[in-house]
Design brief:
This protein is of the alpha/beta class. The chain has helices spanning 24-32, 37-46, 75-89, 107-116, 144-164, 185-201, 228-238, 257-267, 292-307, 329-348, 352-360, 364-375, 380-389, 396-403, 405-412, and strands at residues 2-3, 6-7, 51-52, 94-99, 120-126, 168-171, 176-177, 208-212, 222-223, 242-247, 270-275, 317-320. Helix 3 (75-89) links the parallel strand 3 (51-52) and strand 4 (94-99). Bound molecules: 6-deoxy-beta-L-fructofuranose and manganese (II) ion. Manganese (II) ion is lined by residues 172, 212, 247, 274, 321.
Length: 425
């Protein structure tokens, strides 16, 4: 089978019969919770998550960027790697891009190349944090000319999105101040709103603007978009095409992100997620690798709202935003997709009727145990069954390792072919 200019060995799905993975005992337990195997499989089939182009290139910390042999260094290599993740998981046909890290001359050719290898270009991320001009901010800068420059970059990204067939602009601002008094916080807020209104007016019908927040870094006194409330207020002032993006690494320690998700769903303004995990700050580690119960609670809020017909649930953009500084990048992405599928699968197994009864009977621990029972259910057999029914290997990581892709690209791709664009890479 040929894809682009490289032959990818045909995937020999392991000879596994349908229904082999899910014993009748498991199926009965599901039934006991009001869940059918077919219903579970159908829900998993509808779930997809975007991978970030920047997760395939070299990345690091301010201390060091380690170069990974064969790491993708430009968009087509990043897409080729993303196609591997899609091949073994079937859950991530979309790839988010970052401009200018992924800038190309012919976006139609990129769209064509992506579809040839079974992908589509997802969210377009403007970059308003790497230009010298943005030392004091971009859309909040006190100099109107700098704000205009930033607005023009976002409008360029809107045009790129139109060319590649993407319906999402995913905007994060590094804007903020480092010292009290450095700038007037109310005037910055008004500049931000005015700038965003100019951007919003440039959005074609149907295109969404997702407003990401982060409580600190690189600003260390005040960040102009520090929390979900500020992003929500801006989205509400702008209009229905603007929503809030929740990056799971962007909250103060101890924040209950599941509650933020519940609130945004109830407001109908949850635009999407940048999934990753952290122990300390914005660590951008593999989602679900440090606190899988937190991720489960987030999906529990989404499934609960969906079960009650919440319309916002069908409009959530699921995306991964990570940097793989020491671990193999493609395998890390596959593991991330598996971890998200696992959290979602467990949330689908909550007995919602019994949970509601326990909640409204004040049965505190009874209600808690409903979630605990779902979280502690080993969903691997169910996910294996789901993958086998799609003609895929039940174990995506094993399937990828068996492909020899990593060894081949390490041979084929010139060592320092150029920077992935990541700071310091
Ligand atoms: C900022 C952020 C943002 C991206 C960047 C790569 O911390 O989460 O979403 O633009 O990481
Ligand atoms: Mn992010």
């Amino acid at each position: 089978m040929r894809r682009g200019n490289r032959s990818i060995p045909a995937q020999k799905p392991a000879i596994v019969r349908q229904g082999e993975y899910v014993s009748s005992e498991i199926e009965n337990r599901l039934q006991g919770r009001g869940v059918t195997l077919d219903g579970f499989i159908a829900a998993m089939q509808q779930f997809s998550i975007e991978t970030p182009s920047w997760g395939y290139g070299d990345s690091g910390t301010r201390f060091k960027v380690f170069h990974w042999p064969g790491a993708a260094s430009h968009l087509r290599e990043k897409l080729a790697d993303a196609a591997q993740v899609q091949r073994v998981t079937g859950a991530c046909p979309g790839v988010a891009i970052h401009i200018p890290w992924d800038r190309e001359d012919d976006w139609r050719a990129v769209k064509e190349y992506a579809s040839q290898i079974g992908l589509r270009i997802g969210a377009v991320n403007p970059n308003l944090f790497q230009d010298d001009a943005y030392r004091f901010g971009s859309l909040c800068h006190f100099d109107k000319a700098i704000r205009q420059r930033a607005i023009e970059h976002i409008i360029e990204c809107i045009h790129i999105a139109q060319e590649v067939g993407s319906g999402v602009i995913s905007l994060w601002l590094a804007d903020g101040t480092n010292y009290p008094g450095q700038d007037d916080l109310r005037r910055r807020r008004r500049r931000l709103l005015e700038s965003l209104q100019t951007v919003y007016a440039a959005l074609p019908a149907g295109m969404r603007l997702l407003i990401e927040y982060k409580f600190f870094e690189p600003a260390f006194y005040a960040t102009d978009l520090p929390d979900w409330g500020t992003s929500l207020l801006m989205a509400q002032k702008l209009g229905p095409q603007a929503d809030v993006l929740v990056d799971t690494g962007h909250h103060p320690q101890g924040t209950n992100i599941a509650q933020i998700v519940a609130q945004l769903l109830d407001e109908g303004r949850l635009g999407g997620f940048h999934f990753n995990d952290r122990r300390y700050a914005d660590d951008d580690l593999i989602v679900g690798s440090q606190n899988p119960f937190e991720l489960f609670c987030i999906f529990n809020e989404i499934v609960s709202a969906g079960a009650e017909g919440n319309a916002n649930v069908g409009r959530i953009e699921y995306m991964i935003d990570q940097s793989h500084n020491i671990e193999p990048k493609i395998e890390a992405m596959i593991q991330s997709v598996i971890n998200v599928q696992t959290a979602y699968a467990k949330a689908l197994l909550v007995d919602r009727t019994a949970l509601r009864e326990a909640q409204e009977a004040g049965d505190v621990l009874g209600a808690y145990r409903m979630l605990q029972a779902a979280f502690e259910t080993d969903v691997r057999p169910l996910l294996s069954e789901f993958r086998v029914r799609q003609g895929r290997d039940p174990d995506p990581v094993a399937a990828f390792r068996a492909s020899g892709y990593v060894e081949r690209v390490a041979r084929e791709r010139p060592a320092s072919a150029g920077s992935s664009g990541y700071p310091g890479a």
